[in-house]
Write a structure and sequence with these properties.
The protein has 13 helices and four strands. By secondary structure, it is mainly α. Strands 1-2 form a two-stranded antiparallel ribbon. The termini are far apart.
Length: about 300
């Protein structure tokens, strides 16, 4: 039965790549169902988290629906590593009993980070609208989903910015992993295949970076920079927090990750320029902070 349920959630996760499937998922209250599973700490907690992670990807509408359904109260404990699920155990007298265990392992942490990244990035997508009554007034900028975005932003300010602290902690963790993977690659080059050409070597290095959590690292950097761009209070706190880290280059490392993401976007023909814009904005924040520290 557990295998059957796992297969169902895997299939549902894969279906979220299709716009029509995502539309039906929203219309039939799929978001609410997944949240209810997580809230009730059911055995399929991890499967529901995975489905939601796929459902919100590149979908501001699904992100807004998740917030409107009260999903932040369910999601952020998982993001903080505090998600729980209830499992059945068997006592010595062969009677069943329930116990609560931690639901967040490495895979679930990656899914939770992806969810939060999509909430911040997708809900901050802007729309252009013609200024009413004045054809020469140009266009004004507005957010597609302003109210859900404000609720997400409020979460990062709550409880002394603890969720912003968590982002900085995750950036440090995954940056160290990616750097370790790069160093391991460099040290093994002479042993593995002396005949490997430059393209093959580059592909192997990218694979090792991915295995170490490059996507998650980039997601964390995007989230940090988006928060800085959206809120002066969060910008000040995050920049100060990065500067306080044991690694004095933590702030510069965020910029470095964003720069790499912007380069990837350009190589893949990305037209939004979002990563490049956040890279420039974050770089400016760090430079301004450095100037202020000197003064």
């Amino acid at each position: 039965e557990e295998e059957c349920v796992e297969n169902i959630f895997s299939s549902l996760s894969g279906a979220m790549a299709e716009p029509e499937a995502r539309r039906l998922f929203l219309e039939n209250q799929g978001v609410g169902l997944m949240l209810r599973i997580m809230k009730n700490k059911m055995l399929s907690y991890r499967g529901a988290l995975r489905v939601l992670s796929h459902a919100v990807a590149e979908s501001p509408e699904t992100c807004a629906a998740l917030v409107d359904a009260g999903g932040l109260k369910v999601l952020f404990p998982a993001f903080m590593g505090l998600g729980k699920l209830t499992v059945l155990g068997v006592k010595k007298n062969k009677t069943s009993s329930e116990k609560t265990v931690n639901a967040i392992g490495n895979d679930e942490e990656i899914l939770a980070v992806s969810l939060v990244t999509n909430l911040v990035v997708q809900l901050s997508v802007k729309k252009q609208k013609q200024a009413e009554g004045d054809a020469e007034a140009g266009s004004t900028v507005d957010f597609e989903h302003l109210i859900p975005l404000k609720r997400v932003m409020r979460k990062f300010r709550d409880h002394n910015f603890e969720k912003a602290d968590r982002l900085v902690e995750l950036h440090e963790k995954y940056f160290a992993r990616v750097v370790a993977a790069e160093q391991a690659h460099l040290s093994s080059r002479g042993r593995d295949d002396a005949m490997m050409d430059e393209d093959e070597d580059s592909v192997l290095l990218d694979m090792r970076r991915q295995d170490a959590g490059l996507d998650t690292l980039q997601g964390v950097a995007l989230t940090l920079s988006s928060l800085c761009a959206l809120s002066p209070a969060l910008r000040q706190y995050i920049v100060d927090k990065l500067e306080e880290q044991e690694d004095e280059n933590a702030a510069t490392q965020v910029v470095q990750v964003l720069e790499g993401l912007a380069e990837d976007e350009a190589e893949e023909g990305g037209v939004s320029g979002r990563a490049y814009g956040l890279f420039q904005a974050m770089k400016m924040c760090i430079e301004e902070a450095a100037v202020g520290a000197v003064q």
